[in-house]
Design brief:
Length: about 300
């Protein structure tokens, strides 16, 4: 089982200041939809409003093979909305309409077993109202020896909150098997753009396996015995909104397909195993950038079943 935990949101996508699509989204959500479409057993722990937008989101999950059993519907509350403005390079800037202070999840959580894969990240993973429950869930997953994949995904809208959440970010990394982030994430968090320094000073004291992406530039992998670099495929983009989320989905798909679910083995994993997982991640990421949607298409997913 792959278990995601994260926010849900309705992305309204603008091109040339005109809306062009409305797509259910959220970092873990986008990845889980892609995994559900490939047939990987998937569920998402999340919360959304008890409104029409929430109905759209829950139906979208179940229609795409992702269990909605652990979705909390907040009574008399509106679901989160984001406006995503695509520039001439089809990269997005965001305007969010969220009520972080009243975000909530019921106390009922799925059981995590050894061999499961857990995906979490973004501000959801450190948001103070949700933090006690998220921390307890990740701690139990860690104790169960599940593979835990942490996507930092830190937005500039939360820069002022770094002093309040930095300890939670460290706790998350300490419990994780793999940490992934973009170079942009770490420039916000640490004011640093040197990947080796980021790994040495800010990641490796807590987690030994680190993937750092940098848009269309090469991806870097760091483990205790290895630093490897993988070029990104050149493509014509339509939208980059789901690029990182679907890299996560492809990488996790590879872990599930090839049975790489022994968390203790990752620091000594062979380069060819890492390369295979990264190729899945890059394939999913490249594909999603060729459409306006946040997850891989069903036709593309069917080729991986």
């Amino acid at each position: 089982m792959v278990i995601g935990i994260g926010e849900t949101i309705l992305d309204i996508i603008f091109k040339g200041d005109q809306p062009s699509a409305a797509v259910p989204g959220g970092s873990s959500f986008n990845a889980m939809i892609s995994l559900g479409r490939t047939g990987v057993p998937s569920l998402l722990v999340t919360e959304t409003g008890d409104d029409h937008v929430g109905d759209i989101i829950v139906k979208f999950m179940t229609d795409n093979g992702v269990s909605a059993e652990y979705v909390t519907r907040r009574k008399e509350s509106q679901s989160h909305i984001s406006l995503a403005f695509l520039n001439e390079n089809n990269d997005a800037s965001y305007q969010f309409y969220k009520d972080h202070a009243h975000a909530s999840i019921s106390g009922r959580m799925p059981e995590v077993r050894r061999g499961d894969i857990v995906l979490f990240g973004s501000f959801f993973a450190v948001n103070p109202p949700l933090r006690p429950l998220v921390k307890a869930f990740i701690e139990k997953a860690h104790e169960s020896k599940a593979v835990i994949y942490y996507d930092i995904n830190f937005r500039p809208t939360h820069i002022k909150e770094i002093p309040m959440v930095i300890d939670s970010i460290k706790e998350n990394m300490r419990m994780s098997t793999i940490v992934r982030g973009s170079l942009e994430d770490f420039s916000y968090l640490y004011g640093c753009n040197d990947m080796e320094m980021i790994y040495r000073n800010h990641i490796s004291p807590y987690c030994k396996c680190f993937i750092c992406t940098d848009g269309e530039k090469p991806l870097h992998l760091f483990t205790p015995g290895m630093h490897a670099c993988y070029p990104a495929k050149k493509i014509e983009t339509v939208s980059t909104i789901g690029a990182g989320d679907n890299f996560n989905a492809g990488f996790i798909y590879g872990l599930h397909r090839h049975g790489l679910v022994d968390a203790a083995a990752f620091p000594a994993l062979k380069e060819e195993d890492w390369r295979r997982m990264i190729e899945y991640g890059q394939a999913f990421s490249s594909h999603v950038c060729t459409s306006i949607y946040n997850s891989i298409s069903q036709d593309f997913a069917d080729s991986f079943r």
